[in-house]
Give the backbone structure.
Amino acid sequence: YAFSFTGGATLKWFRDVFAQKEQEEARQAQKNVYALLDERIPASPTGLLVLPHFAGAATPYMDTGSKAAIFGLTYDIYKALMEGTSYEMRLNFDRLKRFVPPVEEIRATGGGASSDVWLQIKADILGTPLTALSCGEIGAAGTAAVAGKVRLMIFPLCRRWRRCAGYFGPMKRNAANIRRCINNIQNCMRR
């Protein structure tokens, strides 16, 4: 015999985690949510590989410790994570606009400032030029300088901190898509 611990459970997990909107649509249309999802999937194979061991593996492995995996999303998910954090920054900046003058340039430091790809994504989504500084982690030193605790040591370093490692301006060709994504995010957050 052959069986799976997770056949319907994997689809239920997807429904619960990713398909809240479709659940509501199906409820309003008095339709099965899985039938609605079935209508929306492409006919061709996805190119993704799913190891559906969300509750371990049944036959032929009989390994209750086996873990699930989804292969093939690597770069899509990687970029989406950078975009998601950048959209979150954009929403914060949009709220701050009511209280502060317009931001004409953003200075980037830290680990994220070492990724030209992420800096360009941020510049596009924020709609503001970003300058990456050559000094990586300066947050703690800057805090100490503001507090006046290490003034003699910090100020000679300030010139080095201001050196630019790169400049990233928003690309106009991405603006319409970004506006659409921001509207989608705002609509989701209102629910």
Summary: The radius of gyration is 24 Å. The helical segments are 7-18, 20-28, 33-40, 74-96, 116-126, 139-147, 151-161, 175-190. The mean pLDDT is 80. The chain has eight helices and five strands.
